[in-house]
Amino acid sequence: MKKLFLISLILSVTLMAETACSGSSGIGTSERDAETLLPDAASLNINIIVGEQTITATLEDNGAARDFLSRLPLEVTLEDYNNGTEKIFYPDPELNLDDTPRGCSPIAGDITIYEPWGNIAIFCRDWSESNSLIKIGHIDGDGISLLQGTESMNVKFERQ
How far apart are the first and last CA of the chain? Predict the structure, then answer.
């Protein structure tokens, strides 16, 4: 009986010492790792610089948006597509679409990927639902007004 008590005591002390030394609050390693991998809401905010003006956008919490975020800062030329409906560019390489839901009904300001071509499309007008569109973010407020029109424009995407 004394041996069993002694073994239990040694195990308890050892476990408490490991916890104290690791600085852990009792959360398992896999739980701590998962917490650091999940972005908080603030880390999903980006700036889009158009000339001398900056607009903001909030990215979705999905695989493609996280891949896009990992590439920032990024300077691109947005080309008009469909007579002012969208501004598009082609990321190189294409964004990873793992862990990313398909299909959306874009509204003005939505940042999407058109899966068949791999391009990013920022919608300047509302558009019809498509299973080939993948939403990765949305421009905040009325910032889309800076992108509307049919001309091409150079922009810079960066983390806030």
Answer: 62
